[in-house]
Structure formats: C-alpha cells, structure tokens
Amino acid sequence: MKGDKIQINDPELVEELLKREVDFTVWKKLGLLNALANCKTSFEQAARLFDVPHSTAYVWIRK
User: Fold this and answer.
1) 53 burial class (0-12, 13-18, 19+ CB within 10 angstroms)?
2) Contact 21, 27 (CB under 8 A)
3) Least crowded by CB within 10 Å, which of 4, 12, 28, 34?
4) Neighbour-count burial of 2, counting CB atoms closer than 10 A to its CB (0-12 exposed, 13-18 middle, 19+ buried)
C-alpha cells in the first residue's frame, strides 16, 4: 500500500462523525481517516501521528 493514494469518498461526513463521536476507539479511527481525507496527510505520517503500527492502520482503513 506504500505510495498508493487513499480515496475518501465523503471527507465532510468523516469530519462530522469525528465531531460527534464519544467512543475513544472509534474517534481515533475516524481521526486517522480525517487526517487522510481533510488534512492531506500521508498514510505513514497519519499512522505515526496516531501512534499505531502500519498494519493496524491498514485494518482500520479496510473496515
């Protein structure tokens, strides 16, 4: 997946869900997606920012 472009179809929805989420585990996953969708962060940077291994971040994106 390194170097692949990750396309988020509805970045506004991700941002809105992130604002309303109360479960920290779900919030962290949405935060990673938001960083990719709205902040133009690379996958590697987002994984480091959220302190998760790349393999975990891949799982979060696939779900």
Assistant:
1) exposed
2) yes
3) 4
4) exposed
CA separation for the pair 38, 21 (Å, rounded): 17
The CA distance from 5 to 22, in Å, is 29
The span from the CA of 1 to the CA of 21, in Å, is: 28
Residue spans of the domains in the chain: they are 21-62
CB burial string 13-31: b at 16+ within 10 A, e below: ebeeebeeeeeeeebebbb
Q: pLDDT above 70 covers what percent of the chain? A: 89
- pLDDT tens digit sequence for 44-63: 898 999 999 989 998 988 86
